[in-house]
Design goal:
By secondary structure, the protein is an all-alpha fold. The chain contains 3 helices and no strands. It starts with a helix and ends with a helix. The model has no long low-confidence stretch (mean pLDDT about 95).
């Protein structure tokens, strides 16, 4: 795998982590809405207990994903900066080859 391919794979992972982060956030928002509905009239003790536990677990997952996302985004940026000239050379060579085809 050349440096450009590695950077592209790193970009893909960053995008997938961001998507995972957004999905976890959406789950928390949905659970929160159900919790509010429960508090606004249902007052079901099982919903209150189970949704509260789910909310806590997903919030913990979101924190972990956010940490991993920040770590890997920094790692990707550092890799890109460190290998910028090699990546640009690979891109330039690919452009030349494409123009000659």
């Amino acid at each position: 795998m050349d440096k450009l391919q590695k950077l592209e794979l790193m970009n893909k992972v960053v995008n997938e982590l961001e998507d995972l982060q957004n999905s976890q956030t959406a789950l928390i928002e949905k659970i929160s809405k159900i919790e509010v509905d429960n508090m606004n009239g249902l007052n079901d003790s099982r919903l209150e207990k189970d949704l509260g536990e789910m909310h806590s677990k997903i919030a913990a997952n979101l924190d972990a994903i956010t940490d991993i996302f920040a770590y890997f985004e920094t790692k990707r940026d550092s890799y890109n900066e460190k290998n910028r000239s090699a990546i640009e050379a690979i891109e330039a060579q690919a452009a030349i080859e494409a123009a000659n085809s």
